[in-house]
Write a structure and sequence with these properties.
Elements lengths: L6 H14 L4 E5 L8 E6 L5 E8 L6 E5 L8 H14 L4 E6 L11 E2 L1
């Protein structure tokens, strides 16, 4: 398995990457600094959103991301309901919102539906 960065460090790094590209990005919920995990809400600013959730690739132990709200874009209300459900399961979650009209997430890891 790959070593994992603390949640807050990973969040700060991803914010820096987006900011460097002039992409608006916001922490909409702070989680636990070390043990927390992150959800990423990609907002296309036209009421089309997608929430990405991290998981482990059990073949090689690397991190990959799943389209938690499904393969298609959903409205913002549906995305926010999904996030609230996940927070109810895991109070340590961070939520990062990326506003990009092209729907880019800027993750290096694989994203699956």
């Amino acid at each position: 398995m790959e070593p994992r960065l603390k949640a807050e460090i990973w969040i700060k790094a991803h914010i820096r990457k987006c900011s460097f590209l002039n992409i608006p990005v916001f922490v909409t919920r702070r989680g636990d600094e070390t043990a927390g995990s992150a959800l990423i809400k990609v907002n296309r600013l036209n009421n089309q959103c997608m929430v990405l959730t991290p998981t482990t690739n059990f073949e090689d132990g690397s991190r990959k991301w799943l389209q938690g709200t499904g393969a298609n874009w959903v409205d913002e209300e549906t995305a926010d309901r999904y996030i609230e459900k996940q927070i109810n399961f895991d109070r340590d979650l961070w939520v990062l919102e990326i506003e990009d009209t092209e729907g880019r997430h800027f993750l290096d890891e694989k994203v699956e539906s």
